[in-house]
Amino acid sequence: MYDVIIIGSGAAGFSAAIYTGRAKLKTLILEKGVIGGNTAQTDLIDNYPGFPFGVNGVDLMEDFRKQAERFGTEIEMDEVASIEEVAEGKKIITSSGKEYLTRAIIIAVGAKRRELGVLGEDEFIGRGVSYCATCDGAFFGNAKVAVIGGGDSAVKEALYLADIADKVYLVHRREGFRANQTAIDKMKVTNNIELKLNKVVSSIKGDSLMESLVLKDVNTGQEEDLSVEGVFVSIGLVPATEFLAGFLETVDGYIPTNENMETAVPGVYAAGDIRVKTARQVATAVGDGVVAGMAVTEYLKE
């Protein structure tokens, strides 16, 4: 029996764990993927307070982890399949078949990268198709690669890959970008980045490894074959809350909470990008996690 189980090990999850651990609550973090979540997949975080010259996401999350563990937090790598109300509190069942009992839960699973949903995407995952440039970019030194998307993450990934790959194509379905102007300006003067605007990916082709993208012009319908060895999909995030079906209501997959991070189910809290909110940044995730950790502590005292 745990006092609190935190689902997700990103900035929100670790921040909550630091506070529950310091309150002497028996705390467990369950993580199905990468320790540190999306933050750990970011090469340079330039807007997190306290780091005037930026900070590497992996390094930042490693410090979060060490601090949480210093206060007694346990970490298990497992995927939550479902949650049930039981007489003792709440029961979490994982995909590996393990069961955990807890008095309270903080859901901090964040959101996962959105997929293209085109022919060949699933086939070539790990063989040319990636959703994280900082994770897999090193495999494409002196190669030709493409980044799909037009937001901040896509432009940042293109700039990151430009230092590794021989050529980077940025494919975007529109003429304009949603990314911040500073990053756009930097991208436009980077010699080995070429823009492919008003185009979408219609399929991914290859043999044992991916070899090319089929791009379709959104205005003319004309297709072209773009020869690349890798493609990095960066078209936004989707909430990872399938495991909450039948247990907790969501809005478009995101969890509504009040200002104390309380959900509609007593003893269940949500923090970070998985909440219904307007800003999804490392700093806001940390704030959510701190509030959730304090709120859980008060809840269990009562």
3D structure, described in words:
The mean pLDDT is 94. The chain is of the alpha/beta class. The protein has 2 domains: 2-113 and 237-301, FAD/NAD(P)-binding domain (3-Layer(bba) Sandwich), CATH 3.50.50; 129-233, FAD/NAD(P)-binding domain (3-Layer(bba) Sandwich). It has 6 helices and 17 strands. The strands form 4 sheets. Strands 1, 2, 3, 4, 5, 6 and 17 form a 7-stranded mixed beta sheet that branches. Strands 8-15-9-10-11 form a 5-stranded parallel beta sheet, covered by helices on one side. Strands 12-13-14 form a 3-stranded antiparallel beta sheet, with no helix packed on it.
Task: Jot down its keywords.
302 residues, 29% strand, alpha/beta, FAD/NAD(P)-binding domain, 2 domains, five-stranded parallel β-sheet, 23% helix, seven-stranded mixed β-sheet, 17 strands
How is this fold's topology laid out?
Layout: E1 2-7, H1 11-22, E2 27-31, H2 57-70, E3 74-77, E4 80-86, E5 89-94, E6 99-107, E7 111-113, E8 129-130, H3 133-136, E9 144-148, H4 152-162, E10 167-172, H5 181-188, E11 193-197, E12 199-206, E13 210-217, E14 223-227, E15 230-233, E16 237-239, E17 268-270, H6 282-301
Parallel strand pairs: 1-2, 1-6, 2-3, 6-17, 8-15, 9-10, 9-15, 10-11
Antiparallel strand pairs: 4-5, 5-6, 7-16, 12-13, 13-14
Helix pairs in contact: 1-2, 1-6, 4-5
